[in-house]
Amino acid sequence: MIVGLWLKSMKPIAVGCLVVLLMLALVVALLIGSLVSSATLELGSSRAKLQEEFSSKVLEPAQKQSSAKIARIDLDGIIEMGESEDFSLHSAGSKLEAVKASLKRAQADPAVKAIVLRIHSPGGDVTASDVLHRAVKQAASVKPVVAMLDGMAASGGYYVACGASRILCSPTTLTGSIGVIMEHFSYHGLFGKLGLGSEAITSGQYKDILNGARPMREDERQMLKALVGEMYERFLSVVADGRKLKADALRNTVADGRILSGNQALAAKLVDQLGFIEDAYEEARKLGKAPGASVVRFSQHEGWLSLLRMQMHSWLRPAQTQVHLGPLPQARLLPGIPYYLPANWLH
Asked: CB–CB of 177/258 below 8 Å?
């Protein structure tokens, strides 16, 4: 009764504003409830939930009423661990876990007779490339996997492809770049000109090994070279094992970091044949013994709740202030992290 008298005493405009605020509060409450409910479902996801998270698009229909399928999975962009929002370090690309999940789904689907993994990637960090290579190799032990190297499949991108049953590329594909790179940004010379200095208190002589405020010591340089060398030897063994080539022969020829065209890669036996995506489909049908199979793209789709969560995450993310030092190059890689990337991706 008191609330009724209070509402009567209010002006119509005020009552309308109050109603709008109440409706907005209700909508927000429903959204929060939906987010909590969605998060709970994701934590306890079942096989049915996993199926719902994937979308399948028919790229080529089946022939002769065949029920067999060729699964196409796309790997685009920088290969990184975690929730990467950066592909060419400027635009969104494939996430490591999404590609792994698509590979697992293709393995579990009895209608899928073979997999085509289309790769368009300059590479990425060492561990992420190694994790994805293992996932591809595991899939190839269950069903044939044909790696189709697109416009660029260099360094870590080629590393991943070495887990496949067969590798194709076009004549103009850029590939190779077998090697490891680690960036160190040195600015002690600039500090000296500006009258600035930096002092690090460390627990050991190598704790600030990549401190750009001072010159790198020769013992530090040798230590980092040994680390990069170890990563390189692993890369070399992956290529040698996947391509049935001798590691020493690779080390003394094309495994020196050089970029190769598709024709050059074929001559070096880094790929099995030249072709295009349609040729990869046919090769997968041949290896999977499914001549009339359809081609279906497997990918994870984002529902409206997932998109809303991503938007809320961006809203809640703390603001970052960036300082650009005039014409100096902006480092695009994390210092001290080894990468399977071509050198031109440093800046």
From this structure: yes
In DSSP terms, 145 is beta-bridged to 115
Q: What residues are labeled active site? A: 155, 207
338 Cβ contact partners less than 8 Å away, ≥ 6 residues apart: 125, 126, 180, 181, 182, 227, 228, 231
Strand bridging mode 145-154 / 112-121: parallel
Size (the chain), residues: 347
Residue with token string 């960090």 = 125
In the chain the domains, ranked by start, together with CATH numbers, are: 52-192+204-313+331-345 (3.90.226.10)
Picking from 187, 189, 140, 199, the residue whose alpha carbon sits closest to that of residue 167 is: 140
What is this structure's pTM? 0.74
Q: CA–CA separation, 338 vs 5, rounded Å?
A: 71
Residue 148, beta-bridge partner list: 118, 168
Q: Which residues contact 274 (CB under 8 A, 6 or more apart)?
A: 168, 169, 170, 171, 262, 263, 266
Q: Which of 167, 209, 182 is nearest to 126 (CA)?
A: 182
pLDDT band at 94 (very low <50, low <70, confident <90, very high): low
Q: Which helix (H) or strand (E) holds 308?
A: helix 304-316
How many Å apart are CA 336 and CA 231, to the nearest integer? Answer: 13
Can you tell me the distance from the alpha carbon of 219 to that of 255, in angstroms, rounded to the nearest whole number?
26
Residue % of the chain over a pLDDT of 70: 69
Q: Which residues pair with 168 in a beta bridge?
A: 148, 273
Compute the C-alpha angle 207/208/210, nearest 5°: 125
DSSP 158-195: HHHHTTSSEEEE-TT-EEE--S-EE-----HHHHHHHT
**Does 178 score more than 70 pLDDT?**
yes
